[in-house]
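pls design
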């Protein structure tokens, strides 16, 4: 089955207002920037996003955030986005903060059909006890707090119950992919992209190098095409357009 779409705009055209999205990438590494830009142009709003982070001001998911298209974020790191902090503290944005490893496993579990699992991460903290501010009121008080979670002992070790995550759509970026949707990720772009792709009911992947079926070594495929419904081939310029959050060089 040929899953290639003519453009990013076509691939995200049916994402509706209020949709939930799993978005791959780690910082600005491996983010599906072309698909995010296409979704911004498409105009969907009220989006509920699951992603390790929410981009930076003016880049990645920060583009949708600054346009107030996102109403809820489930993530693990939000420290590089001033607009994110402003919206969260002013009560404009609902935020569920999740330990990073737990977030990864919740996405993987959702994609694997596992409804919930126990983990020791978060035991003894507000992650388990509840009370983390999910949404603030305009006056700075907590309007909505996280609920307490079920805990259970396994071999004398306390663990907290976490639920798998599935989303309406997923947006990911891969280094190579074929027309059947088999994907290969490169270096740190492998962080969260395969997991986000698994969690989406409809997964859209932008690929830097599109190849024909049979050209990928099966032993090197990181994500099989069964998890991917749409492919967008990037131009060389789009594939090369990569940004660094904090560039550090020697004098």
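designed seq:
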């Amino acid at each position: 089955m040929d899953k290639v779409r003519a453009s990013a705009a076509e691939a995200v055209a049916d994402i509706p207002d209020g949709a939930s999205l799993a978005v791959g990438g780690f910082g600005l590494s491996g983010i599906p920037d072309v698909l995010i830009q296409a979704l911004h142009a498409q105009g969907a709003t009220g989006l509920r996003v699951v992603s390790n982070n929410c981009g930076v001001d003016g880049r990645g998911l920060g583009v949708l955030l600054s346009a107030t298209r996102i109403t809820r974020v489930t993530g693990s790191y939000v420290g590089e986005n001033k607009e994110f902090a402003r919206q969260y503290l002013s009560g404009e944005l609902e935020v569920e903060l999740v330990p990073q490893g737990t977030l990864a496993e919740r996405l993987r579990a959702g994609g694997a059909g596992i409804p919930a699992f126990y983990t020791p991460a978060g035991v003894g903290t507000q992650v388990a006890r509840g009370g983390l501010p999910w949404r603030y009121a305009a006056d700075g008080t907590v309007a909505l707090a996280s609920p307490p979670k079920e805990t259970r002992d396994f071999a004398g070790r306390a663990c907290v119950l976490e639920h798998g995550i599935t989303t309406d759509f997923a947006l990911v970026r891969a280094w190579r992919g074929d027309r059947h949707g088999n994907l290969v990720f490169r270096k740190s772009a492998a962080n969260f992209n395969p997991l986000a792709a698994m969690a989406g009911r409809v997964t859209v992947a932008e690929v830097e190098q599109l190849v024909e079926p049979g050209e990928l070594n099966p032993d090197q495929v990181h994500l099989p095409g069964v998890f991917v419904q749409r492919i967008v081939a990037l131009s060389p310029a789009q594939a090369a357009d990569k940004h660094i959050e904090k560039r550090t060089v020697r004098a």
